[in-house]
Amino acid sequence: MAQFEIHRFIPMEIGGVDVSFTNSSLFMVLVLGLITLFMTLSMRRSALVPSRMQSVAELSYEFVANMMRDTVGSGGQRFFPFVFTLFMFVLFANMLGMVPYSFTITSHIIVTFALAATVFLGVTVLGFIKHGAGYLRLFVPHGVPVALLPLIVVIEVISYLSRPISLSVRLFANMMAGHTMLKVFGGFIVMLGFIGGWLPLAFSVAFIGLEILVAFLQAYVFAVLTCIYLNDALHLH
Q: What is the value of pTM for the model shown?
């Protein structure tokens, strides 16, 4: 499990709180730098016939824009910069973690929970700003018999409050489990040597392909659930 260890590069403490610059902090900065570099280089010389890099950037843009139109509607397009940034950050963090000897920041629950909590708090504040106390109608589904309302409201409140937990654990668990499995297969390759290591090597190659797919899917799931929560806040669905 050494690949998940946090190492302090620049120890710092403010008011008794440890705010050291760590390997996790470093890779967050790297992710932001890679996203900025990718978007800047891909759109620096935008052309009618796009280059490969420009095509990938435009496909990413359209992918998130279409996802928001399908889940939130045209009224939610003003939140596109936030959702697009969130999607790209999680995607690049997941993909960077696939590079050997790198660090996967999304394999830590504190990072994924911070992202999920930001989404949860932002959506909740938005819901109350738009609907006021009427936002509480989200916990009272239409057509529910009066006798069942106390039970249904409790279930809906628990379901709502569990959103940041489920959103963060889903991303963290998938990334941590995948990298742990790759480490296990890698250990088998070393243990079995040149003669018997071919089978775990084949599994490792196949599993790397699966992990790359999972890295994209988890970024998509994180973004699409954010869009669904935005839709609830805007339209009370």
A: 0.89
